[in-house]
């Protein structure tokens, strides 16, 4: 079992399920010593069950999310009263959920590599460097090749952003809101990992990253079942703000995410209208500090 990431609420490990060749993701919610034992136990149980229920519902609706393999909402060595675990002070030892392992690359990393690639390629083109192995000497040829290259790269990233929007649309159509929609909680299934450079850094400046594959939503620790347009609009607003802070070069293309959302979710009209209201409230909050 290998630790993948450690957050404030949970630890994520890569492990196996049933056989050594079947990878799985184990998410453990540890106890919080600063909380009252009984309250901590109830909150931990409620949150892990909420996450599991949301995932099961989404899998049933055909949304691209990890499948739930097993759940234990109260870790301890002993059990009483039909399997209800208890410790001496009433506090459980946390909870865990075992899920399907999604092989691929985090969308945040893919987009960041693309932005670095575009920046380095643009700088090289401006300096008159060699592009695609052919030395360009005529200004008209330079502009034409640059335009073709730019169109192809933007087409790739726009396709990815539309798939992101379609994934969010499918999520909302199933009656679930994520609660923490960022590009860190999206995985591009099957996307190749960027090979490390000689100094060991995965800078992504050497080649355009792979953007093929389906977008999978992960980390439903803050998810809930909701059919309210307000909740859905807040989901989109959180994702939009994440683009602004994490992907400045790609932020102007966020409209592609909304186009993908609109195409995949029939009720998107009222949600996108509510999104405008959420944006206005966000701007006022920013101005007031």
From TrEMBL:
It is found in: Chromosome, Telomere; Cytoplasm; Nucleus. It catalyses: L-seryl-[protein] + ATP = O-phospho-L-seryl-[protein] + ADP + H(+); L-threonyl-[protein] + ATP = O-phospho-L-threonyl-[protein] + ADP + H(+). InterPro entries: Kinase-like_dom_sf, Prot_kinase_dom, Tyr_kinase_AS. It comes from the Eukaryota. Residues 1-289 form the Protein kinase domain. Signal peptide: none annotated. One of its GO terms (molecular function) is hydrolase activity. Its main location: nucleus. GO terms for cellular component: chromosome, telomeric region; cytosol; EKC/KEOPS complex; nucleus. GO terms for biological process: tRNA processing; tRNA threonylcarbamoyladenosine metabolic process. Its EC number is 2.7.11.1. The keyword Nucleus applies. Keywords: Activator, ATP-binding, Chromosome, Cytoplasm, Hydrolase, Kinase, Nucleotide-binding, Nucleus, Phosphoprotein, Serine/threonine-protein kinase, Telomere, Transcription, Transcription regulation, Transferase, tRNA processing. It holds the Pfam family Kdo. Component of the EKC/KEOPS complex composed of at least BUD32, CGI121, GON7, KAE1 and PCC1; the whole complex dimerizes. Component of the EKC/KEOPS complex that is required for the formation of a threonylcarbamoyl group on adenosine at position 37 (t(6)A37) in tRNAs that read codons beginning with adenine. The complex is probably involved in the transfer of the threonylcarbamoyl moiety of threonylcarbamoyl-AMP (TC-AMP) to the N6 group of A37. BUD32 has ATPase activity in the context of the EKC/KEOPS complex and likely plays a supporting role to the catalytic subunit KAE1. The EKC/KEOPS complex also promotes both telomere uncapping and telomere elongation. Belongs to the protein kinase superfamily. BUD32 family. This is EKC/KEOPS complex subunit BUD32.
